[in-house]
Amino acid sequence: PKDLLSVAEQNSLLNIKTNKDHLAIRNKCMALIILAGALFAEEVVWLPKSGLNLDDGYIDVNEENNRARRVKLDLELCEDICTKWLSVRDSFSNGISCQQLFVTKKGTPLTKRMLYKIITQCLIGAGIKKKRLGPEVLRQTAICNMVRQGFTLEEIQANTGLTTVGNIAKYKLVVNDVK
């Protein structure tokens, strides 16, 4: 539980200033998409740009094993930064066409290793001091947020891709321990 982000730490992440720095916008967008949808790191790396639907508040995730799912996003967390990222994405990558939502300046997809480094730096930049930093901290925090918000087990399972109820039940225990 100590590796989960507190409400204050989540707010620090939300309040990171990006100004007009395209790199900072991309990095904050990646962090907030994980926090808003409880995505796995590899899902973020391979998210298709075409799968993001801010009007309806979801993103279509295509998993490597051909199991696709629709992830409901917490738009309060990510809508503004996603809109900013979409407005600068193509100029960031010099107009090079790539189907992934998150790209490098060369217009190529990010690697999982790059994502871990970026998310860790983003969390440090938000002033978060934890022993363990990375996308999994955001994902676990997002799942606990869903539990706190009263999502049913089925909703959490559908949204997160967790395959067993036991995996979800452990998050309920964590949330109950923190109360």
Write out key terms for the chains shown.
179 residues; mainly alpha; 7% strand; 8 helices; single chain; 55% helix; 3 strands; 3-stranded antiparallel β-sheet
The end-to-end distance, rounded to whole angstroms, is 11 Å
User: How large is the count of helical segments?
Assistant: 8
Give the strand tally. 3
Note the run of SSEs as H and E. HHHEEEHHHHH
Helix content: 40-55%
Strand order of the largest sheet: 1-2-3
Largest sheet entry: 3 strands, antiparallel
Oligomer category: single chain
> Tell me, what's the shape?
globular
The chain-level mean pLDDT equals 86
Low-confidence runs: none
What structural class is derived from the secondary structure elements? mainly alpha
Radius of gyration: 16 Å
User: What amount of the residues lies in strands?
Assistant: 5-15%
Task: Walk me through the structure.
This protein is mostly helical. 55% of the residues lie in helices and 7% in strands. It has 8 helices and 3 strands. It has helices at 7-14, 22-37, 41-46, 75-92, 112-125, 135-148, 153-160, 165-178, and strands spanning 52-53, 58-62, 68-72. It has a 3-stranded antiparallel β-sheet. A hairpin with a 4-residue loop joins β1 and β2 (58-62). α2 packs across α5 (112-125) and α6 crosses α8 (165-178). The longest helix is centred in the middle third of the chain and has 18 residues, at 75-92. The mean pLDDT is 86.
